[in-house]
Write the structure tokens for this entry.
Amino acid sequence: MMRHLLPLLALLCVLDLFGQGEPMRRPATSTEYWMSAGVEVKPFRKPSGRIFEKRFFRKFRSYVELGYRSQENITDSRLLYTTIGGRYRENKHLAFGLDYRYNWRDRFSRNTGRIDGQVTLSEEFGDFEADYRINYQHEFTEIDELRSVIRNRVQVEYNAPKFPLDPVASVEVFNALDPQVKGVIGMRYTLSVKFDLGKDHDFEVGIRHDREQGIPDPRYRYIFLVAYEHTLRWD
């Protein structure tokens, strides 16, 4: 599967080059900081005395995340959000996810809710782990604004043996599902490093480049990100 995902990663980059065309207006450039912290938990416990646990309960995980995004001045808030959701891993190659996010925006923007549904395909190849994720995103906002987007992401992670840092690279394509806006509206490139802090702790830092296109007043953003996730266990 890895040999199919890597060409797909290259294809997404090519689509970006062909999809840009002539910009409608010179893109504005900005710097942002994104920070998030989350907790994942297995919500269903096996009843005492039962030997076997139902498959769905064994493979389902729920999570909650709190995130903060700022302008170049880290105290100048752009967005504060909270996400609740669930993930179901059918096997080591296939997983499903569904979550709801509420966004508290700055004083110039309207607060909104959002739902996301994902399907993820993954494969390990030696010390590499690759995955492809398709995500349907729908934002509950004004009817004349962009509401629905399909996101396609390819990610490759190198699990460095006997080393606490694992590099990660990904490319994501944003496609609008809107009568007034069609085709690719954005690309997202991410380079990050995951730190090995133990079995139940994930810590990641990185840099991300967002490029909007095919829409009025496109923006290019350079983003510094910090993310932490804790897996909570009952036992």
About this structure: Residues 17-24 have pLDDT under 50 and may be disordered. DSSP finds two helices and eleven strands in the chain.
